[in-house]
């Protein structure tokens, strides 16, 4: 009788205009949350996630604090993190495809993707759970770099001379670039069962969108189309965000890239069920 009453109450709530959508959304998020936590545990429960974080921090620390070159923060003329924000996307170009290459490709190779299809969760939620897990790992890797900000803040003369607004928006731009690379990596992992092939495709697409369009537009061979080609590249929009001003068109660009490749991955996943 208790079960019947509970079922009845749930049905009543679903029919309610206010609580119905909230309950449905809660159920959807609960299913996705379980898969999201599973993906997080697969990263942090194995050596994969720690290797990603460690390699990023080692490369970042070496280039910005140890090696004597233009990227060294201590040798710069101004107290800022511009070298860090310029170089980090290049680290992401290689590291992010390495962590996303197994997201779906490994499921396809082992056949466990068929088990995912039997779960009471939509294909989109499966992709989003894997996507947000990788983005979470990316943000975890960036958190220790806040030490860079604190160090440059107090090393500046006078103390606090740093442009805090530009630093904050630059971190936002870096996260958006990383999130876009993750979406590209998820798509690349969906179209093949080989992790190596997924890595190569993801890296190629990341380089194309980050640097490729910028280079093609710099040759000045297409006339008025050169500016359009540059506009398609991430650097154009990333540079705009790094100036300290949040322009809606730059945010919309990165969100569009993420949605495009998530949708492409979803299309591939749906085709596997036919």
Please characterize this protein's 3D structure.
It is a single chain. The chain has one domain (33-272). The model is unreliable at 1-14 (pLDDT under 50). The two termini are 42 Å apart. The chain is mainly α and 274 residues long. The protein has 13 helices and no strands. 30% of the residues are buried. α9 crosses α10 (195-218).
What order do the helices and strands come in, and which of them pair?
Layout (H helix, E strand, L loop, with lengths): L1 H14 L3 H26 L2 H20 L15 H19 L4 H6 L2 H5 L5 H20 L3 H10 L8 H27 L4 H24 L6 H7 L2 H9 L5 H25 L2
Helix pairs in contact: 1-2, 2-7, 3-4, 3-7, 4-9, 4-10, 7-9, 7-13, 9-10, 9-12, 9-13, 10-11, 12-13
The end-to-end distance, rounded to whole angstroms, is 42 Å
* Main β-sheet description: none
Shape: globular
Order of helix and strand elements from N to C terminus: HHHHHHHHHHHHH
Structural class: mainly alpha
């Amino acid at each position: 009788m208790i079960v019947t009453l509970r079922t009845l109450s749930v049905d009543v709530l679903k029919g309610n205009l206010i609580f119905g959508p909230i309950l449905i959304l809660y159920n959807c998020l609960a299913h996705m949350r379980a898969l999201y936590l599973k993906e997080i545990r697969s990263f942090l429960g194995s050596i994969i996630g720690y290797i990603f974080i460690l390699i990023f921090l080692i490369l970042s620390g070496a280039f910005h604090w140890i090696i004597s070159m233009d990227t060294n923060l201590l040798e710069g003329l101004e107290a800022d993190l511009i070298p860090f924000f310029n170089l980090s996307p290049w680290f992401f170009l290689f590291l992010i495809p390495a962590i996303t290459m197994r997201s779906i490709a490994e499921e396809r190779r082992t056949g466990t993707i068929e088990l995912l299809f039997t779960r009471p969760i939509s294909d989109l939620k499966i992709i989003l759970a894997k996507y947000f897990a990788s983005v979470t790992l990316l943000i975890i890797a960036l958190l220790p770099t806040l030490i860079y900000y604190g160090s440059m803040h107090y090393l500046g003369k006078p103390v606090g001379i740093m442009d805090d607004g530009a630093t904050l928006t630059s971190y936002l731009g870096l996260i958006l670039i990383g999130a876009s690379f993750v979406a590209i990596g998820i798509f690349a992992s969906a179209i093949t069962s080989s992790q190596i092939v997924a890595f190569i495709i993801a890296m190629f697409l990341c380089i194309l969108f980050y640097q490729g369009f910028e280079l093609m537009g710099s040759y000045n061979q297409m006339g008025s189309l050169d500016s359009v080609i540059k506009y398609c590249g991430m650097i154009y929009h990333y540079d705009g965000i790094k100036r300290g001003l949040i322009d809606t068109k730059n945010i919309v660009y990165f969100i569009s890239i993420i949605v495009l490749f998530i949708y492409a991955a979803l299309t591939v996943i749906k085709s596997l069920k036919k």
